[in-house]
Amino acid sequence: MKYMIGVDVGGTFTDLTLVNVGDKTIKNHKVYSTPDDPSVAIMTGIKEIAEMYDVPLQSIDYLAHGTTVATNALIERKGADTGLLVTKGFRDLLEIGDQTRPNLYDLFKRKPEPFVKGYLREEVEERLYADGSVHQELNREALLESISSLKDEGVEAVAVCLLFSYINPKHEKEIVNTLKEHFPEAYVSASHEIVPEFREYSRLSTTVLNAYLGPVIKRYMERFRDKVQTNGIKVDPYITQSNGGIISIQESVSQPIRTAVSGPAAGVVAAQNLGELTGYKNMITFDVGGTSADVSLIDNGTPQISTGREIEGFPAQIPMLDIVTIGAGGGSIAWIDEGGALKVGPESAGSKPGPACYGRGGKRPTVTDAHAVLGRINPNHLLGGRMDLDISAAEEAINEHICQKSNIDRERAAEGILNVVNANMARAIRLVSVEKGYDPREFTLVSFGGAGGLHAASVAKAMNIPRVLVPPASGTYCSMGLLVADVRSDYVRTYPIQPNEENKCDILTLFEEMKSEGEALLIKEQVSEDKRKYIYGIDARYVGQNYELTVTFSEDQLLDLDVLKELFHKEHEKVYSYSKQDADIEFVNYRLTAVGEQPKAPVRYVESEPREKVPVKSYRNVSFSDGYVKTPIYSRDDLRPGDKLLGPAIIEQMDSTTVILPDQTMTVDHYLNLLIRNGKESL
């Protein structure tokens, strides 16, 4: 028998999904995260779920792991001591940046400190022209002095970023070879290997971030792989990337920046796979955990990609799933500001001490405490009965920190907390939809994460989203995404030209180079030829514009310039509400994504079993804005395809709770998803 395991590490819990490939059964498990060493919780969880379902560790045929190590290292500034080699005259570019202030109207808000200290930045005597030709050859003697200086300072990693090396990497390659010869123990990150793309500051920043993370990720991955092998698991694990793909541990060490902010990506991939099964190709993913809410948009089956996001105040010029993250999760702390307004988040109680109702020492009220006070979560049967809630502690926290400072009663205070956090979540949905030209009424809200089901119905109602889809095991859904992800690797070239017949050959050459690199990577990842595919894209703009829009297309359309130009006009119309058909267009960046299709965790299709009455597990008084209502409580395990419910109702399962509002209906589809719709006429 073969098994697949996906592990997703969150701020509060580490989630695991176990799939039996033979009979297509899916099992889930949660353990508390261990932030000091995430691999401890991972191996604890793997051993526990294997023991629970009598699975020999040797029979695990596929293991994928979503890591927060890179993200945490950046947030906590616990990366490697890093040096920088940069073209002479550009030593302070990390400080200068693009002259954008962190807050336009706050003149006193300071920029974040660069990840490379000033005295660890060495200038290199060399210079290229903008076309890549050499103006000044590399001064090797001065370079050796700079390397010696960095070595004496004890740096673990060195970032190398020279002017115009994205066109001609000759000098960067010489520096990398010299570092290997004279400073072999250093982790080296060169910009032509990480992000060969124009815009000097963002390229430099990305290269520095990669170097800063390199030694930390290398040590963690080696430690994790050793633990996996020591426990008898024979396969090498895959690691999730920010672009939604997976990559082997060996490849993740060479470009660790691609694993930063990768935590929420697996959930988007799982939703994309679900859309292919159910036919709901337009989706807004809604992932609410203990510390944050992550929102993304899938348009006609394709997740949105961003290449210009910031991490800890610094640009990271790598392809990432376009996910908006806000500090609004179950552990988000509610508080009264100086003006007497109720606020929720972004500070979180985390896993320790956690919400007050967890009984782990938390004293401040959280979103979870509000749900507990309003009766929306089971006080005696959380995590399948492994956890009880201390309702009195939640009530005390809300009384002390909210009621006594605002002169409102406890029920109104708890409802206020939920209203505020729901409004914050709705704003995040607007960022990925309305503000980018999409109408939320044309989408399905896919809810997952431990707290997603508690908020999805309310948020969908506020945004006029017609339906909510809650997949099975929604509380551990990101770990399921790791079992349906493909190997992905992204490549880019910069070469600004206008799309005309005489430039066709240059465009084709650039894509052929990138395809060769992608093919080599897929071969290295042992992807067979019939499982390889390539996604093409071009960043284009009207001549004179400062920024570009990305259009994607098939290989067959590559040399049909009229089609490519029309695709750009349509994208410009969608984003900016106008296009200029007679304006000259400039192609700037050329992108290729190499995809290696991987085995997907099977999902069972179950025939409908209509029945007049769905068994009620119990009843509980639950508050729905108009006071407490005696509400039926259902077990998710008792639901079958074809079942229909009228709200109000609560559906409980091991890893999450789903709330159905009084004016909503719920049906169960053939894949055991819950479909919640506004209005009782839907039945």
UniProtKB/TrEMBL annotation:
<feature type="domain" description="Hydantoinase/oxoprolinase N-terminal">
    <location>
        <begin position="5"/>
        <end position="182"/>
    </location>
</feature>
<dbReference type="Pfam" id="PF19278">
    <property type="entry name" value="Hydant_A_C"/>
</dbReference>
<dbReference type="InterPro" id="IPR043129">
    <property type="entry name" value="ATPase_NBD"/>
</dbReference>
<dbReference type="InterPro" id="IPR002821">
    <property type="entry name" value="Hydantoinase_A"/>
</dbReference>
<dbReference type="Pfam" id="PF01968">
    <property type="entry name" value="Hydantoinase_A"/>
</dbReference>
<dbReference type="InterPro" id="IPR045079">
    <property type="entry name" value="Oxoprolinase-like"/>
</dbReference>
<dbReference type="Pfam" id="PF05378">
    <property type="entry name" value="Hydant_A_N"/>
</dbReference>
<feature type="domain" description="Acetophenone carboxylase-like C-terminal">
    <location>
        <begin position="507"/>
        <end position="670"/>
    </location>
</feature>
<protein>
    <submittedName>
        <fullName>Hydantoinase/oxoprolinase family protein</fullName>
    </submittedName>
</protein>
<dbReference type="InterPro" id="IPR049517">
    <property type="entry name" value="ACX-like_C"/>
</dbReference>
<feature type="domain" description="Hydantoinase A/oxoprolinase">
    <location>
        <begin position="203"/>
        <end position="490"/>
    </location>
</feature>
<dbReference type="InterPro" id="IPR008040">
    <property type="entry name" value="Hydant_A_N"/>
</dbReference>
